[in-house]
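Input record, target 12 of the design panel.
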């Protein structure tokens, strides 16, 4: 477990295998989660990659900074972390808002990126009204009030079975995020629209989505993939919005297969 202050924010991060000469893979977490969502994927891929995970500002053990955030704030934190670690190029994998942070990083610091993996994300998710309603509701009533609806989009009914001990654990992860950090990131999503720029992505790209994703449904992610030249599109069976938790072996397999073709370029 490591911490570093960058951009005036104390960031919580973890690295494995850096300096071993392996290609670097970076994971960016989604709204209302911290980097532990990648734990099983990291375990699957640690032999092949040096891996960086971190808690974006306002989430997990990273500082709040000054919400509301812009997507550029999130991307700047990641760029500063990679610069600090001496990572010159990496495969960037982002889930949901994490995928939007990856898009912003590609716009701002393309030198850092050799390939992109977009998981349950798009150039635009919802509209401004949708996000500002969510912000108002959470500011008034807290994350507890919206948690069950969010979890229905995150996970399949099978995962939400009361007998599955992981489910209440991830519910706890969601409701313990700081409200100001959560809604600060909602504001970044509300303002984010890269639809005009998706066609300019010029690195190998994989778009992947759970077949039961209730937040960014397969059709939305497929349309995003179509807008990116040469992007590969894959659907993971048996997963909602967070395949890294629900189907880590499948997701890791897709990442391994995709990166096998491009890792040598780094
Ligand atoms: O929380 C949700 O509803 C799903 C989601 C949208 C953006 C993100 O990062 O997660």
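The sequence produced for target 12 reads:
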């Amino acid at each position: 477990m490591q911490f570093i202050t960058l951009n005036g924010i104390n960031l919580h991060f973890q690295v494995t295998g850096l300096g071993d000469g392996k290609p670097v893979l970076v994971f960016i977490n989604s709204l209302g989660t911290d980097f532990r969502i990648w734990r099983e994927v990291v375990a699957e891929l640690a032999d092949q990659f040096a891996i960086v995970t971190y808690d974006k500002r306002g989430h997990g053990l990273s500082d709040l900074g000054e919400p509301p955030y812009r997507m550029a704030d999130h991307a700047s934190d990641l760029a500063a972390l990679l610069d600090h670690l001496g990572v010159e190029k990496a495969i960037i994998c982002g889930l949901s808002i994490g995928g939007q942070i990856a898009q912003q990083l590609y716009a701002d610091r393309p030198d850092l990126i050799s390939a992109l993996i977009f998981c349950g994300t798009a150039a635009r998710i919802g509209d401004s009204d949708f996000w500002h309603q969510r912000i108002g509701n959470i500011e008034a009533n807290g994350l507890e009030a919206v948690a069950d609806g969010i979890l229905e989009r995150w996970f399949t009914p099978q995962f939400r079975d009361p007998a599955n001990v992981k489910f209440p654990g991830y519910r706890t992860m969601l409701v313990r995020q700081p409200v100001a950090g959560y809604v600060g990131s909602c504001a970044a999503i509300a303002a984010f629209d890269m639809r005009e720029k998706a066609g300019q992505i010029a690195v190998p790209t994989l778009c992947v989505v759970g077949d039961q994703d209730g937040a960014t449904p397969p059709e939305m992610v497929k349309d995003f993939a179509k807008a990116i030249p040469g992007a590969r599109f894959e659907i993971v069976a048996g997963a909602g919005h967070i395949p890294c938790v629900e189907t880590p072996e499948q997701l890791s397999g897709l990442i391994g297969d995709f990166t096998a073709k491009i890792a040598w370029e780094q």
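The chain has one domain: 2-265.
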